[in-house]
Design brief:
By secondary structure, the chain is α/β, with parallel strands linked by helices. About 45% of the residues lie in helices and about 30% in strands.
């Protein structure tokens, strides 16, 4: 799955964009790259664009994701509970709403949007 993870110094956010089919291994790579940037740039705002993802994770994989994220961030010295994440998705919301609920129920700050601008405003607090 092609993806990019970059730091946007203008907004002081980490931006990730995913395209195609997601696998757990690739998701772990993206999480690790995001955590490294979060530590290097002392940035806790993460924006992820899922609009071009064609095959998503299974319900079981989504349920396990908060622990995977927490473990990877913790191993790199970043407290995931202090991070705020906005996800932009296409109109197929069901799995992403489940994803948001699982994350929030495990103490992570995350919200799902279908509108790019609304997601950015929520993330940066404007």
């Amino acid at each position: 799955m092609p993806y990019t993870v970059i730091y946007n110094p203008e907004l002081h956010i980490i931006e990730a964009r995913l395209i195609g089919n997601m696998t757990v291994g690739e998701v772990d790579e993206i999480i690790a790259k995001t955590a490294k940037i979060a530590k290097e740039k002392e940035c806790r705002l993460i924006f992820t664009d899922f609009r071009e993802v064609s095959q998503k994770l299974s319900i079981v994989q989504i349920y396990q994701l908060p622990d995977r994220i927490k473990n990877i961030f913790t191993s790199l010295g970043v407290n995931i509970s202090l991070c705020k994440r906005a996800n932009v998705v296409a109109n197929d919301l069901d799995d992403y709403i489940f994803h948001e609920n699982v994350m929030v129920n495990r103490g992570q700050i995350e919200k799902v949007f279908t509108d790019f601008d609304q997601a950015t405003k929520w993330l940066i607090g404007k």
